[in-house]
Design goal:
153 residues; mainly alpha; 7 helices; globular
């Protein structure tokens, strides 16, 4: 009779412990990327043109302000991703590498399906090198090179 109770208790305990097991979680990079709304709203296009005009005139502060308006008003459009990239590029050109990295990092994180992502990753590598973080740049460049199958285009 004691053997039966011992077996019954063992089976119940194993059943309980089996339900307590850690279940594997889905990796973070497997989550679907948010879809970007196709097309560019007329106001966003006008703001983009205004930003480009200001940048060409040498008024980068006004250009950045216009791009920031686009980011805030149209976050689900590809033009917002382009704006993050444009701002990061401006800061990179001004040798403000840490600030450029902030924009590139967020762009890569928030817009993983954006068409210009490859260029943003390359610009991020440039920023890392200019910031003196050459080891990090090389470490991140290797998977990009492997993904390109040795074709730098």
């Amino acid at each position: 009779m004691d053997k039966i109770r011992l077996w019954a208790l063992t089976i119940v305990a194993l059943g309980f412990l089996a339900n307590c097991a850690v279940r594997p979680q889905q990796p973070a990079d497997m989550t679907p990327a948010p879809r970007l709304t196709p097309g560019t709203p007329a106001e966003a296009d006008a703001l983009w043109q205004q930003a480009e005009k200001a940048r060409k005139a040498g008024n980068v502060n006004a250009a950045v302000a216009s791009w920031e308006q686009i980011i805030h008003k149209y976050p689900n459009h590809a033009v917002a991703a382009r704006s993050y990239h444009a701002i990061g590029t401006v800061y990179l050109d001004q040798k403000q590498t840490e600030r450029a990295l902030q924009f590139f990092d967020y762009l890569i994180y928030a817009y993983p399906s954006w068409d210009g992502l490859a260029q943003a990753k390359l610009d991020r590598l440039r920023a890392l090198v200019l910031a003196g973080k050459k080891k990090a740049a090389v470490k991140e460049a290797m998977p990009l090179w492997d993904a390109a199958n040795g074709q730098p285009d």
